[in-house]
Amino acid sequence: MKPSTISELLKQDFTLQEVDIKGWVRTFRANRFIALNDGSSLQNIQCVVDFENTDENILKRITTGAAVHIKGELAESQGKGQSVEIKVSSIEILGDSDPETYPIQPKKHSFEFLRENAHLRTRTSTFSAVMRLRSALSYAIHKYFNENGFFYVHTPIITGSDAEGAGEMFRVTNLDAKNPPLTEDGNVNFAEDFFGKETNLTVSGQLEAETYAMSLGKVYTFGPTFRAENSNTSRHLSEFWMIEPEVAFMDLAGNMDLAEDFMKSVINYVLENNFEDLEFLDQRLQDEDKKKPQAERSELTLIEKLRFVVDNNFKRVSYTEAIDILRNSKPNKKKKFKYIINEWGADLQSEHERFLVEKHFKCPVILFDYPANIKAFYMRLNEDGKTVRAMDILFPGIGEIVGGAQREERLEVLKQKMAVLGLDEEELWWYLDLRKYGSAVHSGFGLGFERLVMFATGMSNIRDVIPFPRTPQNAEF
Amino acid sequence: MKPSTISELLKQDFTLQEVDIKGWVRTFRANRFIALNDGSSLQNIQCVVDFENTDENILKRITTGAAVHIKGELAESQGKGQSVEIKVSSIEILGDSDPETYPIQPKKHSFEFLRENAHLRTRTSTFSAVMRLRSALSYAIHKYFNENGFFYVHTPIITGSDAEGAGEMFRVTNLDAKNPPLTEDGNVNFAEDFFGKETNLTVSGQLEAETYAMSLGKVYTFGPTFRAENSNTSRHLSEFWMIEPEVAFMDLAGNMDLAEDFMKSVINYVLENNFEDLEFLDQRLQDEDKKKPQAERSELTLIEKLRFVVDNNFKRVSYTEAIDILRNSKPNKKKKFKYIINEWGADLQSEHERFLVEKHFKCPVILFDYPANIKAFYMRLNEDGKTVRAMDILFPGIGEIVGGAQREERLEVLKQKMAVLGLDEEELWWYLDLRKYGSAVHSGFGLGFERLVMFATGMSNIRDVIPFPRTPQNAEF
């Protein structure tokens, strides 16, 4: 079959053939050289126009952003940095692009500006590389789970439960916004709402995924989740995608094995399949780094960071051990940490996590057996009565990337924990049923997909790794 | 590696080895034979208990639904219908299941009852088969697109746009439900809502997907979409998953080629990879059919229906031709159709679509070039000024399964159509930008994922092909 995309065309190892290709003009210089891109690859292909024999009105319309249809002959390139080029025999303008108003000029734009033009930003090399990587990582995730006997479960987005407890929720409603129906005692009558009760957007699919693990064995979710927190930071989104595997008969040690194997596998996938895009982003970061003072530069390049994860065993360290290490560490003693670690029970911050990974162990770290009172109600209580079988995976540059746990499988212990937190047994009747009928040890973890994309692309603002970010005050597009 | 699931174990071609396996008891008969299932496969494995040497208290706890850990030796089976069985050397009860209260008894339950126990229904053969197939179809979709150079795009779930026009929307808010803030003129002040304006749950990712097609070339979405319509039918959900590919430089003919190849590929995937589950569901349907009067029985079995799609070319027929065929058809003349087709311009119903597929052409059908006024504003107007380059794919037993179109790429024509419908140009500025800067022919289609799962599993109620269905008055679990 004839290649129809630039990606296909550049994979060919023969030249001198007729080609027929469509794409968008990135640049046009010397009235002669079109850098053409069609999104299939980071690479542009150079198209050489015979300007002496081309209508001047056509030449004028070859502007940045214009869509063109080019026919010609593939030839070895005379220029640097490319092996082949197209000698154009015919060019048709499919769609013009007014160079006076087209937002994506052939120059460096700020990421803030490009966010305001999120509908066009994938026409830049950086964002097309990021979004191709996002797609490849998604595929790597589905592929990993499929090859390892997991079933994909679509847990519900609209939930009637407010017991998930992972954060503030958005209400989903179609009651009249101004004059909602009221009950006799003057409260909003949610019984008249669409679902007959108050409903929200999910913050996690885990509890529902557990029901499927306890019947199908190995399952995972990969879907959108929501937080209505007013966090305007470079690490938070109101809408983001999450991956949550859940496995019956698996304990915390198995959970750690799974998470390590999984993370290595998906990162290895992009190293093997998307190296060109990674190299480009790596170079971009190195160029950025050169502008910074020495002290702020990264110790590892992007690709080194990815290899750091793939090539190292993840060090498994109990929370208690980690606290000892941190308490006795230089930055703690010299008060270089923003949050000084004084005693067991403290919640770790990103600075502590990064210290453990980057300075102390020099490898990815899995912390486990956290204090019960800083973790969720459904985590398996240890025999010590004060820690739970939770684990967090810590990565360089980013800190926590995965959080997981063995789940509390004992009905009475779970009920006690719910009672302490004031969670309603009636509402979670189905979750409790799993502990009544054929309960067993089971475990799982959650990975915020955008955190993974940030790690794999080196992008530092989470708004730049999702197509159309939703954040407080912003739901454009 | 030692097999740890029943699926892995049954793939082994040797016997007489030590096995160590965990699962749930489906049945226990004659104080001796456990049918054990772990969800990895439709198959149970028979575990033979040496009851004379097993503690009576343990034997009593081997009840339907109990989780057990079994060690033993794999041996050729003496029984019918299975090649291997496990001679149990040790059995441990991991989690009891009270036979008096466990909802999933070893008998036939109605689907209505099982819907009320959706957290346990995948412990039945039918629902575990359906959900394994749902997972396999998801994977087949990602695999197809990945292998064909498409990038996966996560379009936003929360949208500030109400111009998608595909149906009623749910509002997403965190304003006070009872006393929302008001503007000076007494309306709800959505400027104070989380996103600074009124927001809803998306009904389609197509418009956003178009922005990515017009930069990355070939893209697809696969995510949840929502309809706030009060439709309590066996074909409608308030929350469902949709697949929407979108391709730059592709016209309607290319769109039909893509859709046909795609549908054949994903159905072929489950025929090749999930035949056991398909056979089980096929048999189930045949058994159901036998209870019906002759006239209501299916002409094709489930597997025959799937092969009908894979083995036949999809017949391409213009809407105008189809109307002629229908107008002159026997059921139309004899008034057997519920909706009689009298003239060009009529919207086709499922009965007409099925007639074309099942009676007239006897193959899947693609109808194209529909009247403009029964289709969406963004579809490409034909030169006749009255039809648009839309296409619907019709399948046996179900009617329309895919709907797609070439998109209107001409700025002025699009603006005129929006004006007629009263759609705000300001709101869709980014969508119009695609027609201002490097516009080109492009096309795509939408596939309701649950429709595909219904078709591939033969399930007749859409609530039975999604884990936790959301419908009017119901958001349980």
TrEMBL record, chains A, B:
The enzyme's E.C. designation: 6.1.1.22
Gene Ontology molecular-function annotations: asparagine-tRNA ligase activity; ATP binding; nucleic acid binding
Predominant location: cytoplasm
Gene3D superfamilies: Bira Bifunctional Protein, Domain 2, Nucleic acid-binding proteins
GO cellular component: cytoplasm
Pfam families: tRNA-synt_2, tRNA_anti-codon
Reactions this protein catalyses: tRNA(Asn) + L-asparagine + ATP = L-asparaginyl-tRNA(Asn) + AMP + diphosphate + H(+)
Biological process terms in GO annotation: asparaginyl-tRNA aminoacylation
Keyword check for Endoplasmic reticulum: no
Record bears the keyword Secreted: no
Annotated Aminoacyl-transfer RNA synthetases class-II family profile domain residues: 131-467
Enzyme class: ligase
InterPro entries: Aa-tRNA-synt_II, aa-tRNA-synth_II, aa-tRNA-synth_II/BPL/LPL, Asn-tRNA-ligase, Asp/Asn-tRNA-synth_IIb, NA-bd_OB-fold, NA-bd_OB_tRNA
Annotated HAMAP family: Asn_tRNA_synth (MF_00534)
NCBIfam families to which the protein is assigned, alphabetical: asnS, PRK03932.1
Subunit structure comment from the entry: Homodimer.
Family according to the record: Belongs to the class-II aminoacyl-tRNA synthetase family.
Protein name as it appears in the record: Asparagine--tRNA ligase
